[in-house]
Amino acid sequence: MFVNYFTSVPTTVFLGALMPLLRILLSAVVKEVREAERAFSAPENFLEEYDFIVVGSGAGGGVVASRLAEVPSWNVLLVEAGPVPPQDSYIPGLYAFGYMRGNKNWDYATEPQDSCLKSFVGQRATIPHGKVLGGSTITNGMLYARGNSKDFEHWASLGNTGWDYENCLHYFRKSENYRGSKLGETELYHGRGGPMSVSGSHPGDLSVAFLAAGVENGFDIIDPSGPVHTGFSTPYFNVGDGIRSSVAYSFIRPAAAWPNLHVLHSATVQKIILDGDKGAKGVIFKHDDELYKAMASKEVIISAGALGSPKLLMLSGIGPEEHLQEHGIEPIVNVPGVGQNLQDHMSVYGLVWTINKGSSSSMRQFIAPGAIERYVLEREGPYAAPIGDIANAWIGVNGEIDNDYPDVQISLSPAPFHLDRGLFVPYIFGLEKELYMRHYSPLFGEDGFTLLINLLRPKSVGSVTLRSSNPDDLPVIDPQYLSNDDDIYTLLKGVKAAVILGNSTAFRQNFDAKLYDNPVPGCEGETFASDRYWVCYIRHMATSFWHPAGTCKMGPSDDPFAVVDPRLRVHGVKGLRVIDASIMPVIVSANPMAASIMIGEKGADLIKQDWGLNVGY
Fold first, then answer.
1. Residue 83: is its pLDDT beyond 50?
2. Among 224, 178, 588, CA closest to 392
């Protein structure tokens, strides 16, 4: 029932109604799509044995495979469960299609959460991770944010030598091709000439007001990739020349032209092949409903993401011994930390401010005359970037402003929660449709904006475990959201900070902005805007921000829950590494895409070093 509910929206009907628009837009990227699809096609003849096999083509694996293939004498196989990227994914303005369940998506969902998600079906959170070549870099909102320097210093302090900020900064810069003008004092923090294009954005009416609200409250305007992380910013996106600069497009596509990188999509790895000496020798995968083996002479690299990587390790007999035995899997290497340490950013959704009709033009630009023509002819305009007037604030709400370590991100969205009148929002996020309609229908037709409150450094920790020994079954995802009360209090302070921003002079004077004050169903008994009301609101309306991490924790051998060492080698297994967001010992305090790409860059260099190559750093 749960899965059927979320796939019940007739996506095909929606797409059919928009096909004339889509055909025109998609025709603008036909050249890029055809070139990429040729590069992504499977080789005519696979090898009996590869030097390296990389499982998963997202922000970690796609980078690793392309960098390993830089060594001409190494043969690399990249295996991806999903298909090639769809045409619409190349157009930044159509990014919302990537959030649709069933559309190049794993359709992950959490277990019911006891103390939160009370407005969501079954008290479960949806986590729409990309099942497609390029992973979630194909389906996400393209926000480029690295995290705080203290995130990486913290990793190093836990015994992870070489993961301090200075080392990580080198790899952030290596991957980036910043496309904007010189940035002054933060220029040295950016890279130019790397594979992935990164572009700045142009503030619109709402984001100008948002930035003014930050200045009004004593904050600076910052470059979030620079040395200072506290402040307000218009976003940076991984976009170049009007095209989404996904890992598939920027890393895999050019490398796939080389004869030593073979890309196999639509193939699901089901097990790692281990020999009697606890060494990884290859993988078993399913392709076109047939099972095949692929062997590796040097290493197998698992990059299936924070939800997929621990699952594959456990299916292969690597994980908590008792849990594996419960599912009839022979434990080969007892690694208790596999699947533990799950961390995820939570976000409080649905806070809406109404504004004067027509006072903001950012969403109307999407359907404005000439917008499509401008994209088709010039690769510019609203379709050349994620739609809408977006901005972010990075603030410390727990008295930590002076140490520049924000714990809350407040994001401005020009698309208020009521914008689509319930056509897609309830299904994407898993909200109870009846509750959504009851709460938001009075706003239908009103202009407005939303402020999202994102918890950057959660203290609540959960797990990913096996549902069964069947590789086709999705894992059991139990993030234990808000199980640590500190997370509730941080979000409470974040909500109150967002209300101050939304009620600031710039929003009130320029837009006559007013916070929607109808109580959310279930919280009617509390005084609106009191602390008790906001805590109730958080327990009803906070859910996943879709950033799981940490389930194959990096740490030294004396850490009982470490899964990989600082060189990303799985403890107790030879020739096996994990390289993706799952290795984060603590989740970064930003959207994790850029950090996952950095992990892929550094992981590839670690492999090269361990096989005797000089990487020049």
1. yes
2. 224
Active site residue 547: yes
For the chain, the structural domain boundaries read: 42-85+132-180+245-343+546-617, 108-129+198-234+345-545
Alpha carbons 328 and 268: distance in angstroms, whole number:
21
Strand partners, 299: 52
* 3-state DSSP assignment of residue 55: strand
Helix (H, G, I), strand (E, B) or coil at 372: helix
What's the Cα-to-Cα distance from 277 to each of 328, 349, 520, rounded to whole Å?
Answer: 21, 50, 58
595 and 463 in contact (C-beta within 8 Å)?
no
Of the residues 229, 345, 540, 547, which is catalytic?
547
Contacts of 561 (CB under 8 A, 6+ apart): 336, 337, 340, 341, 553, 555
What is the pTM assigned to this prediction?
A: 0.95
Question: Which helix (DSSP H) or strand (DSSP E) does residue 224 occupy?
Answer: none
Identify the weakest region by mean pLDDT among 2-6, 303-307, 326-330: 2-6
Query: Tokens standing for 288?
Result: 């076109």
The CATH fold assigned to 108-129+198-234+345-545 is Glucose Oxidase; domain 3 (3.30.560)
**What are 170-206's pLDDT values in tens digits?**
999 999 999 988 899 999 999 999 999 999 988 889 9
Tell me the average pLDDT across 93-103: 75
Homologous superfamily of 42-85+132-180+245-343+546-617 in CATH? FAD/NAD(P)-binding domain (3.50.50.60)
